[in-house]
Design goal:
Oligomer: single chain
Largest sheet: 4 strands, antiparallel
Number of helices: 3
Strand content: 35-45%
Radius of gyration: 20 Å
Low-confidence stretches: none
Strand order of the largest sheet: 1-4-3-2
CATH topology: Bacterial Protein-export protein SecB
Length: 157
């Protein structure tokens, strides 16, 4: 990368915020009477981004966790942690990587803190999410896209 190109590339955080929060404890107060807390946890991660204006994007990380105890829902928590980012001067492939991986790496700790706080306020032990490798998830996504494109080309021939 040339010095001029490095100067033209810009990546900056403009704003970080919670876009949406949901916490449900459908089994309360019965959900608190468990003898031993051994929950079954189902976690769903999604990310999205959209352009707001030239070189300015909103990136949103959505984390949904459903936690069951003894086959019954103890709680469901969903957080949409968002940010507004300046991403300028990058090639499309690099910009997509930044939005889908690097922005998610920035948003994740904030979402993890919100989820931990919500579960504790809901009367449950704080729910601490394990780290996520967004780089690996992005590479898997890119590979799936390549595989899909190859399948489509194979069908045409």
């Amino acid at each position: 990368m040339s010095e001029k190109q490095a100067q033209e590339n810009q990546f900056a955080i403009q704003k970080l915020y919670v876009k949406d929060i949901s916490f449900e404890s459908p089994g309360a107060p019965g959900a608190f009477s468990f003898k031993k807390w051994e929950p079954k946890i189902d976690i769903n991660l999604n990310n999205a981004h959209k352009i707001i204006s030239e070189n300015v994007y909103e990136a949103v990380l959505t984390i949904t966790a459903t936690v069951k105890q003894d086959g019954k829902a103890a709680f469901l928590v969903e957080v949409q942690q968002a940010g507004i980012f300046t991403v300028a001067g990058f090639k499309e492939q690099d910009r997509n990587y930044i939005l889908a991986s690097q922005c998610m790496n920035i948003l994740f700790p904030y979402a993890r803190e919100v989820i931990s706080d919500l579960t504790a306020r809901g009367g449950f032990p704080p729910f601490i999410l394990s780290p996520v490798n967004f780089d690996a998830l992005y590479q898997q996504h890119v590979q799936r896209q390549k595989d899909k494109q190859q399948e489509t080309e194979d069908l045409k021939h």
